[in-house]
Structures are given as structure tokens and as C-alpha cells.
Specification:
- The protein is an alpha/beta fold.
- The chain is built from ten helices and eleven strands.
- The strands form two sheets. Strands 1, 2, 5, 6, 7, 8, 9, 10 and 11 form a nine-stranded mixed β-sheet that branches.
- Helix 1 crosses helix 9 and helix 3 runs parallel beside helix 4.
- Bound molecules: adenosine-5'-triphosphate (ATP) and iron/sulfur cluster.
- The site of iron/sulfur cluster has 5 residues, from loops.
């Protein structure tokens, strides 16, 4: 865990951060950014100080999800200042994304160095987060240069681990398996698998219908001997909430607080917070079953 002991080589920017959690997915479009967003919202609503770092350099979608598009970030002697997401409930929520540093044509306007690995290094070293309970890192899909760079940059920070996101269909592909194997290679503990888009919540009667097969995420977690964290249904109210944020007045944090997704996600986060995810993995490991 970062922040507890003085480790030589640890970037100054991470020294006051207690936990670092990465969100990974084997394929694009499975809801990784939505899971990152909901992880951050849930932790914030539980009173934690949360930072979100978007290292999806080719498609940074978090500024739009948090209703923070077109915000300017500025730099002082301590580094880049993340954008604060307003909320009247819970703790603090800060956001840093390459999206804040691109012009309208998608060109980097202020970040030094065009290479992805250089950008990720600067994202890790040059952002002035201050004190945080949790830093959630949204990554691009698959196992790309960005993943290798982030693993390299976090080697001193001992992240808590990674949440793997899949869909009921996604688990059938090799991509998600590759993602778990990648975590093992770089020593990221797999905190668990989340099955997103698992059933559909009807906007009229709030019933959940399994429009695709269900249970693949659980089977995958069992196969790899990692914890299963839960199912998140397709809920059209989530997209509505994102669209409802008017300017910077109505915060996603406050909108999310009263949603059914917050109830579902709280159960998922309870497993991560209580360490149940890790404990289950240890208890179920074949080496520990006497
Ligand atoms: N459980 C859900 N209920 C409703 N809509 C969802 C859900 N999960 C994701 N979505 C919607 O699906 C779309 C894709 O989700 P998201 O951007 O989170 O995927 P991603 O895996 O991060 O994609 P990318 O590969 O582009 O980074 C978004 O419009 C998002 O709002
Ligand atoms: S689940 Fe029921 S209420 Fe919802 S659309 Fe279908 S039939 Fe209508």
C-alpha cells in the first residue's frame, strides 16, 4: 500500500495516497470507464477522498462522464492540479485526464513529450493529488504500451491491485484471460472480476431481465481462482444521469447517490473494502485447502 512507509524511488506525488486500484478490461466498450466512474462515486459517497486518473490516452472519456469536459487544468510549482468534481455528499473527488490537455482536434496542448510512456510517467509524477484515500486508475483496453508503462511507474507504489471488467459475452474471449495473466506477470493482485451489462433493468418496471447469458464472470473468476465481485445490469438511468449533469451545477455524485446502481455497486465495493476479495483468494487457493 502506498503512503504508509517511505519507499525509496516512490514518486513524491504518490506518497500521500493510501490505496491505488487499477481498472482493466480485455476488450474495449465493456464498461471499464463506467466501472471506474462508479467505483470512484461509491467510494466518495462513503466519505473517502478519491482521485481518478484516466490513462486511456487514445480515448479519454472520463471528463465527459463526470460532466467536466472543457475544464482547464493548471500547473504550479507542486505539479498539475486535478479537477475537483463538485458534490454536496460524501468525501472528495478529483479527476485528471489527458482529455483536459487536448485541443479540439485531439492534439496535446501542454503536456511535454509525445510518447505514451513519457506521458504516463508525467501523469504519475507530475500531478499534485494531495492526500487521498484511493487513487483509481482507468486504463485503455487490452494489454498495451500504456499497461507496461503504468506497471513500470507503479513498481515502487505497491498498488492494492486491479479490478477486471468483463461482459457476459466478453468472458468467452481470450482477451480477458490475457488481462488476468498480465496482472500475474507484473504482480498486480487481481482484486476481482466484475460482470458488467449483466441483465437489463427495465426503465418502466425496474425488473431485471437476462437478455444475454449470465454467470460467465463468476465462472471465469472460479477458473482463475480470483474473487468474483458481482454483476452490474445495463441500466439506462446511468446514461441519463451522465446526460443530466447540467454544466457544473448538478454533480454526478449527488445524482448517483439516489440510484439503484449505487446500491449494487456498494455491495461490490464492500467486498473490496473489507478485503474479502483478497481473503477469499487466499482461502480458496489450492495450496491452503488442507
Ligand atoms: N451498466 C451499464 N448500464 C448502462 N450503460 C452502460 C453500462 N456500462 C456501460 N454503459 C455505457 O456503455 C458505453 C461504453 O461504456 P464505457 O465507456 O464505460 O466502456 P469502456 O470499456 O471504458 O470503453 P473504451 O474501450 O472506449 O474505453 C458508455 O456509453 C456507457 O455509458
Ligand atoms: S420488462 Fe415489463 S414493463 Fe419493462 S418493458 Fe418489458 S414488458 Fe414492459
Amino acid at each position: 500500500m502506498s503512503g504508509e512507509t517511505e519507499i525509496s524511488g516512490m514518486p513524491e506525488s504518490l506518497k500521500d495516497i493510501k490505496h491505488i486500484v487499477l481498472v482493466l478490461s480485455g476488450k474495449g466498450g465493456v464498461g471499464k470507464s463506467s466501472v471506474t466512474t462508479q467505483t470512484a462515486l461509491t467510494l466518495c459517497l462513503k466519505g473517502f477522498r478519491v482521485g481518478v486518473l484516466d490513462i486511456d490516452l487514445t480515448g479519454p472519456s472520463l471528463p465527459r462522464m463526470f460532466g467536466m469536459e472543457k475544464r482547464q487544468v493548471y500547473q504550479d510549482s507542486k505539479g498539475w492540479k486535478p479537477v475537483s468534481v463538485p458534490s454536496t455528499s460524501g468525501g472528495e473527488l478529483k479527476l485528471m485526464s489527458l482529455g483536459f490537455l487536448l485541443d479540439d482536434r485531439g492534439n496535446s496542448i501542454v503536456w511535454r513529450g509525445p510518447k505514451k510512456s513519457a506521458m504516463i510517467k508525467q501523469f504519475i509524477k507530475d500531478v499534485d493529488w494531495g492526500e487521498l484515500d484511493y487513487l483509481i486508475i482507468d486504463t485503455p483496453p487490452g494489454t498495451s504500451d500504456e499497461h507496461i508503462s503504468i506497471a513500470e511507474e507503479l513498481r515502487w507504489a505497491a498498488p492494492d491491485g486491479a479490478i477486471i471488467v468483463t461482459t457476459p459475452q466478453g468472458v468467452a474471449t481470450a482477451d480477458v484471460r490475457k488481462e488476468i495473466n498480465f496482472c500475474r506477470k507484473v504482480n498486480f493482485e487481481v482484486l476481482g472480476v466484475v460482470e458488467n451489462m449483466s441483465g437489463f433493468i427495465c426503465p418502466y418496471c425496474a425488473e431485471c431481465t437476462d437478455i444475454f447469458s449470465k454467470g460467465g464472470g463468476y465462472q471465469l473468476a472460479t477458473e482463475f481462482d480470483v474473487p468474483f465481485l458481482g454483476n452490474i445490469p445495463i441500466d439506462p438511468t446511468f446514461v441519463e444521469m451522465i446526460e443530466k449533469q447540467t454544466g457544473y451545477d448538478k454533480s454526478l455524485v449527488d445524482l448517483y447517490k439516489d440510484s439503484g446502481l449505487y446500491v449494487i455497486f456498494s455491495q461490490i465495493m464492500e467486498k473490496v473494502l473489507s478485503g474479502e476479495a483478497g481473503k477469499v483468494a487466499i482461502a480458496e487457493h489450492p495450496a491452503n485447502s488442507a
